[in-house]
What we know:
By secondary structure, the chain is α+β, with helices and mostly antiparallel strands.
Amino acid sequence: MYQPYSNYPIHEDLQIIYTEDAYKTAVAYANLYNNLEFMLVPVCGLILRKDVSPLRELELSDVEAIVVHKYIHPPHQINTGAHTGIIQSKRQEVSDLITEEITRLRDEYPRLGNFIKFHAHPFTGGRFLSGGDINANLVGENLQRWRSETGISFVPMQVIWPLEGISMGRNTDIRGGGNDSTWNITTFLHIDNRLHVTPRPSILRDNPKHNSIYKPPFWMDHEGWCVKQRDSLRNRWPEASYRFLGRGWVQFFAPGKPYGIIVTLGPDFPNQPAEIFIVPPQTSVAQFMREKTFAVEDLDTYDLMWDFDSVMRGG
Length: 315
């Protein structure tokens, strides 16, 4: 599906922001590979109009901005000359090699994750997505896999491409200075079976709202909080457990009869509602029930077990 650059409608409601280092990294690899296709793995944070746990799905309308913190570069032996089909065929190998770096970044900044796909079209007129790009990422099983892994219903796709020889009209691409001015990054969205582009991106400055992607989740500021809550739950439900879901969310699970209960807490808890799910017998598929605001005066003395017990009793 090739659409000339002049025909892409602009989706005004999503802003793309780069740290200066992230943008410089993308340009540096474009210069390194020059006329070869390659991929990078963006590590990003989301500025949200509405936050829901990764057990549900963020819609495009929920996301105000995506802040690209860093691009991770897969090893050269995989990346050199790669095109989208090769990248897709080596998906597991690439995933294994970059997981350690993403994990390290998420340990430091739990709200971050891989929420964009990025590759190069290192040729004049490269500002488009091919049918292969779309089929390998934006539709069918690959889209469903992405939604399951990220908890996001849409796939932003970035292409870096050279500007030479193209009259752009309205610019929706980021450009650097000096020698970097020949490389552009366009972010595509697939909306209603048509490709759109985002407005012109910006570089991250000292903006408290955008820098909130680095804010520690509540549980990070209270050492051992999640373990303490799990152990308290086990006084009532011996198999109770917890796990981190991504984007700073944490899940607590208590198996029970006739169904188990999952409570997910967002990174800004207790200033955002908890989410309640049930897990029916003979299945591991959580079914969303409702949001619930828990009254918490002091996180250090709060005991999740009492709210869990209330939920179990239908409260």
